[in-house]
Hints:
The protein has a six-stranded mixed sheet with strand order 6-7-8-3-9-10, with helices on both faces. The chain has a four-stranded antiparallel sheet with strand order 2-1-4-5, covered by helices on one side. It has a four-stranded antiparallel sheet with strand order 12-13-11-14. The protein is of the alpha/beta class. A hairpin with a 2-residue loop joins strand 1 (2-11) and strand 2 (14-24). The chain has helices spanning 40-47, 88-98, 103-116, 132-144, 162-177, 189-195, 213-219, 233-237, 262-269, 285-293; strands at 2-11, 14-24, 29-33, 55-60, 63-64, 73-76, 150-154, 181-185, 198-203, 206-212, 223-230, 242-248, 251-256, 273-282. Helix content is 33%, strand content 31%. The protein has two domains: 2-214, 3-Layer(aba) Sandwich (Rossmann fold), CATH 3.40.50.300; 221-282, 2-Layer Sandwich (Alpha-Beta Plaits), CATH 3.30.70.980.
Amino acid sequence: MLKVENVTKYYDDNLAVDNLSFTINPGEIFGLLGVNGAGKTTTFRMIMNLLTPTEGKISLNNQEIDYKLTEKIGFLTEERSLLTKLTVKEQVIYYATLKGMAEENILEKLDYWLARFGVSEYKDRKIKELSKGNQQKIQFITAIIHEPDLLVLDEPFTGLDPINVELFMNVIREFKEKGKMILFSSHRMEHVELFCEKLVILKKGKTVLSGSLKEIKQNYQKKTIRINADVDINDLKKIKGVTEAFKENLDIIVKIANKEYIEDVFKVVKKSSNVTKFVVEDASLNEIFLNTVGEEYEK
Length: 299
C-alpha cells in the first residue's frame, strides 16, 4: 500500500503541494491529475524520495520510502530520461542494475520485453537512432523490467500511435492483475477513464476533487442527454434547466443543470416524431475536469 499522508511541500516561499493525502492499494490504478504546475511532478518526486516533504509522510507497505525501498518503484517520467549515446542493451542494463538486478536476469527479461514491444532488432542500436515512439518503449521497459510493487506513470503514451497505446495499456492491466500499485497521470482524460478506479485532481497544489471515478461521475450534477428525434433545438433550449443544446452528427446533445430536468426534456421530445434515441449520460471526466479546475491542460 502506498500512503501519502498530509503532505505539504514548499520551495522557499512557494507552496507546491498543500496537505495532500491519498492511498493506493495493491491491484489498483490511481489517477493524479491537474494542469501543468498543479503539483503532480513534485508529488512524484517526493514518492521517489528525490524530494523531501516539508510536512507529512509518505510510506510504501508501511515503510518510509528510502533509497533501498525505491528498488520496489518503477518511474516513467514525462521527460525523456534516456542516455542517448548508449545502446538499448547498455541503457537497460544500467538502469536495471541500479534497481538491484543481476545482469543475467536483466538480459533474459530484456529479450522478453523487446520482443513484446516489437523492437528486438534495436537491442544493439543507440538510443539516439530510435524514433520517439521506440524511445518511449525503451523508457517503459526500464521502468518495469524489475517488476516493481509501485509503478509511477507520468504521461506514458507520449509519442505512441493508437496500436502501441493499446499495447502499453495491456501491459499496465497485467501489472494491475498481478497486484501492483499504479499511479497514473495523463493529459488525455479518455485514458484516465479507461484505467483509474480512484483519482485526485490538484489545482495549485491543493486537492479540489477526489474519490472513486464512478462516484465522482454519478455525483456530478450536470448531465448530458443524447437524442435522435425530429425535434426543434430551439424548443429544447427554452426548457428550464437546459444549459445548452446543439447538433452533433446525427444526434442532438442537450446539457442539463441536474437530473431533475430529465423529465421536462423528455416531455418535449416525446411529442416529436421518429424518436429513436433518448439516452442520459454522466458527464465525461474531461467535462468534470474543466469545470473543476476552470482551465484546460496546457498542450
